[in-house]
Amino acid sequence: MSIKAIFYSKFDPHEGAPPRPSSTTGPKIVHQVPEDSILTASDPSASSNGPSSSFSSTIPLLSFSTISRFVIPRQSLCGNLISLSPPPLTSTTPPTLVLSYPICLTSPHYPRNEFIFNFALVLGDPATIDVPSYKSVVKKLAHLMRSLEEQSHFLSDDASPPNSGKIYSLCEMLMEDLNNYCECMIPIDELNTLNIKLFPSLPNPASVKPWHVPLFTVRIETMVDENWDLTMLRIIPFINGVNSVKRIAALADADLKLTKKCVKHLLYYGCILLLDIFSFNAVYAPTAEFANMIAKDPEMQKECARYVNTAFAPGAQEEAVIDGAPERRTSGLTNATLQDEEMWPLTGKGDPVDGVGIVQLFANLRQGLTVREWYTQNANMLANIDMRRFVTFGVIKGLLYRVHRYAIRTQKGTFPYGPAEGEFLQHPNLTRSMSSERHLTEESSQRSKHKQKHSRGVGKTHADDQTLNSRIVEFLDGTHCFDEICTELGISEKDLTERLKSRAMGEVTIICR
User: Distance (Å, rounded) from C-alpha 476 to C-alpha 468?
Assistant: First the structure.
């Protein structure tokens, strides 16, 4: 129960009258739910309802006298969200947070020509509550009550005794519905209804890059509505866990910026997650959590087997495995009805790849070993396993991480275009003994690749080739991964690697991290 109490307070013009002429304000709690949850007297041992309060089972949360000047503040502070952390009554009183939005109305209708009121929420420990989602509740409640007061003097003309009447009932239903259902729809009169829903405050999504690959985590077809954004409707059919954001924009004939915004919107609400472009030249390695997860979890091993088995291949659009493999139908059977011996993929010799084999395949991935080389070493076991889904499963579950490659131009070559040599950052600490780097200045490699490049370059002008090289040079500062370079320039990783090995580029060091 996040909401501990709700109270309605106002400035009573009679509170500051004799016999207390020195008082300049008259804040007063009119209704509170539950009763006696807030002490209204200066003495913490007292209560707002006199002697009868001694029989109340409600434990007071705070004293109104300590926060009254902020709940009913001066007029200049009205119309602003105010968050308060009142001091605890005793050492055992749990911490609370008071959210309020005071409203001040000026009119000759009111005594002193103004009417100040406030509906406040008392929340539990802020460390365990999504506080931002309740701020909108306080604001909406304040604006609705302001409208009701301006229309019919709904609050100022209410003569009900404390903790009774329609305003008290409204606070009571609001607290009960929000705590139990996270939403409420409370009719106030024939024309007004209080509709409030708690929406969780989500963190800002990560930046979406053109080389990222979105993958659905939900069944998006059950959520799509014809009133959705047109760009969103166009790109959804091409989000399949294979296409990059830039490719999705091209296939959907949509603007790249709008496509990135739509993907970011889906990412914000947790409908997708972002992966790297799958490539056979990519390198993956087990994370530190590998030994404590799938290696010791037989259920995750079965889940992985169902997800990667080519016998249960899904349709064109697939979903990520988050809390279980998505349902895929084959021969009228679902994953839920498969027996243990049916879910394991078969090797090339017809033997099942059990949980131990699944773990062994993950463990064989390591630094310096590409997916192509990993497949060559384990071709028999991978005969009926979808490699892309296998890698995707490991990344989603946190079993694998991608080892990206970055290029640094440490010495200017014969290429005449691009920045001067002095504009490139020299890296004296990058020695040839580092196992994660590759120096591409070997004379034999340059000659062979140079010939291949020119044999393939029929139909391309020398100027086009030089222009592409000049654009590649802009990315050779060690901060741009190969996925980014290939996507931005529209070239393959193989072509990029061959160009980096050419003499025109100079000395280029590739670092894997």
Answer: 13
Looking at residue 415, its pLDDT comes to 55
Looking at 128-282, which runs of residues are DSSP E strands?
183-187, 193-197, 213-216, 272-275
Element of type H or E holding 477: strand 477-481
Same domain for 290 and 326, yes or no, is yes
- C-alpha span between 401 and 394 (Å, rounded): 8
Q: Average model confidence (pLDDT) for the chain? A: 82
Among residues 359, 385, 403, the one where a domain terminates is: 403
Interhelix angle 355-364/298-308, nearest 10 degrees: 80
Question: Based on the domain organization, do 262 and 342 belong to the same domain?
Answer: no
Q: Is the peptide bond before 162 cis (omega within 30 degrees of 0)?
A: no
- At 41, is the pLDDT very low, low, confident or very high (cuts 50, 70, 90)? low
Contacts of residue 103, Cβ cutoff 8 Å, sequence gap at least 6: 78, 79, 116, 117, 118, 142, 145, 146, 149
Is residue 205 domain-resident?
no
Count: domains in the chain: 4
Residue 3 to residue 8: CA distance in whole angstroms: 14
Number of neighbours of residue 206 by Cβ within 10 angstroms: 12
pLDDT tens readout for residues 337-368 = 556 667 899 999 999 999 999 999 999 999 99
Q: For residue 353, which phi and psi values (nearest 5 degrees)? A: -90, 100
What does the alpha-carbon distance between residue 494 and residue 502 come to, in Å, rounded to a whole number?
13
Residue 242, amino acid: V
If you search the block for the tokens 């990783």, which residue do you land on? 493
Identify each DSSP E strand in 124-264 by its residue range. Answer: 183-187, 193-197, 213-216
Q: Looking at the structure, do residues 395 and 460 belong to the same domain, yes or no?
A: no
Is there a single domain that holds both residue 46 and residue 145? yes
Q: Structural domain of residue 409, as residue ranges?
A: 405-512
Retrieve residue 477's tokens.
């500062």
Measured distance CA(358)–CA(84) in Å, rounded: 54
CB 390 within 8 A of CB 361: yes
Tell me, letter by letter, the H, E, C secondary structure of 77-122: HCCCCEEECCCCCCCCCCCCEEEECCEEEECCCCHHHEEEEEEEEE
Which tokens hold the place of 249? Answer: 């924009």
Please report the beta strands in 203-326, taking only residues with DSSP state E, as ranges in sequence order: 213-216, 272-275, 283-286
- Is the same domain home to 350 and 471? no
How is residue 55 written in tokens? 């029989």
Q: pLDDT tens digits, residue range 412-421?
A: 766 554 444 4
> Does residue 207 lie within any of the structural domains?
no
Nearest to 404 by CA among 477, 476, 480, 469: 480
Q: Are residues 249 and 320 in the same domain?
A: no
Q: How far apart are CA 34 and CA 31, in angstroms?
A: 9
**Contact by Cβ (8 Å): 136, 98:** no
pLDDT in tens, 238-253: 999 999 999 999 999 9
| Residue found by looking up tokens 């302001």 in the block | 146
Structure tokens at 102: 């005071």
